[in-house]
Amino acid sequence: MNVKLLILKLFLIALFLLIVSRGLSQVPLASPGLAPSLMDAQGRLAEDWGAVSVRLLGEGMPEHAEIVVREARLDNLIPGVEAQAQYGSVALTLTAFRAPVWPSGLDVLTVRVQETAGREARFRVALDLPEGAQVASSLVRMNGRAVIALPESASADQPMREWGYDDDSTPMPGWARPERACDPAFRNIRAGMNGVPIRYRFAVASKARFNVVLGLCESHWSQSGQRPVVLKVEGAPLQEVDPLARWGRHIPGALLFEGRDENGDGVLEVQALPRLGAPDTNPILNVIWLFPPGEGLNLDQVIAGRLNALAVRYVDVGGANDQSLYAGGRAEYAVTLPPNGAREWTFLVACPGASVTSWERSDWTPAKLRRAAAQVWREWKER
Ligand SMILES: [Ca+2]
Ligand SMILES: [Ca+2]
User: Fold this and answer.
1) 50: closest CA among 139, 152, 128, 150?
2) Alpha-carbon distance 216 to 198, whole Å?
3) Is the model's pLDDT at 13 over the cut of 80?
4) Where are the domains positioned within the chain?
5) 324-369 pLDDT, tens per residue?
6) Which of 8, 93, 253, 257 is most open to solvent, judged by the fewest CB atoms within 10 Å of its CB?
């Protein structure tokens, strides 16, 4: 075989593969000295807290539109990413770059829609959000961390689960080190850092009664009096416990509450709250059991995990079966575009290790952020 022809063929194959792989590859978002995030080939902006993507919904809109993601050089200088999709007569363009905001930067995502067929278009712009994300008026939060700043308040289409945490507490798997045989769920906790309450909500029959058992194991403090926790189960008297005074360090303990959906709203609320004025006001909680009502529940057996099969709910707080009350949801904007009209929104997205501030509470504007990014890259190039 002709060697030159073979080389030419191999070259063409390599070139083809390079083009294909570039066309399909993810694009990083970076700023000098900061950890990058990326937009993947499906147009999802992937961060350490999850991924956010944008699509258009509405009557006459296709269910799915092919999205083309490519590297972009904004203002001929800032490395960024641009993604485009066509939904019927509406073109969707996403542009993203990393802004060098102290200390970890933030990703700036601009969503632009343009009507292209010369007729009015009505649809919804939807931000698809990961599990546990909660849409508030100016922010989307994830386990208490502000992860997206919304340019205007969005309507939320957010399915709720039968039960889950509904708070800003932090999961800490493996935090507790129980020194006695006990249910493995004692090892994982949620903690209400900065004194935020830990709150769970369970869908129940209206006015229903339960034996609620809350499991605790303190593995940080070595003396009592540091972290008393106030435990509140709907329908039952409040109980305050200092796990060290009551059981000791690394010793799993449990408290029984005769809970009841007192206000009849079909939800049983369970909370662990800080004891105000205590040296440590970060409440912790290790395990929740909901048992049918009645006498004679043996707490030692509960702690040992031998009665889990009898429980209506068994929650390894901060562990494997823990879940947010909020399933993955969407933040939506209803839009009407006049013929050939366009609109755009700019979102601030938390990148690895950072959180965002709402637009209202920061001095940034999209233009200022872009100027700051351009300046950093100009200086970087000059070096
Ligand atoms: Ca209730
Ligand atoms: Ca747990």
Assistant:
1) 128
2) 13
3) no
4) 24-159+327-382, 163-316
5) 888 878 999 999 999 999 999 999 999 988 899 999 888 999 999 9
6) 8
Q: How many angstroms separate the alpha carbon of residue 297 from the centre of ligand 1?
A: 23
With a pLDDT cut of 70, the percent of the chain lying above it is 95
- Start-to-end Cα distance in the chain: 51
pLDDT, tens digit (0-9, with 9 covering 90-100), for 159-199: 889 999 988 788 999 999 999 999 999 999 999 998 999 99
Ligand 2 centre distance from Cα of residue 169 (Å): 13
CA 124–ligand 2 middle distance (angstroms): 39
Backbone angles phi, psi at 358, to 5 degrees: -65, 155
Which amino acid, one-letter code, is at 131? Answer: E
What mean pLDDT, rounded, does the chain reach?
92
Would you state the structure tokens that stand for residue 84, as one six-digit string? Answer: 């485009």
Tell me if domain 24-159+327-382 and domain 163-316 are identical in fold: no
CATH code of the domain occupying 163-316: 2.60.120.260
User: How far, in Å, is the centroid of ligand 2 from the Cα of 217?
Assistant: 10
User: At CB < 8 A and 24+ separation, what contacts does 8-16 make?
Assistant: none
Measured from the alpha carbon of residue 268, the closest ligand is 1
Amino acid (1-letter code) at residue 383: R
Ion ligand 1 residue ranges (Cβ < 5 Å): 261, 263, 265, 267
For 70-89, how does the pLDDT look when each residue is reduced to its tens digit (9 = 90+)?
999 999 999 999 999 999 99
How far apart are the CA of 90 and the centre of ligand 2, in A? 48
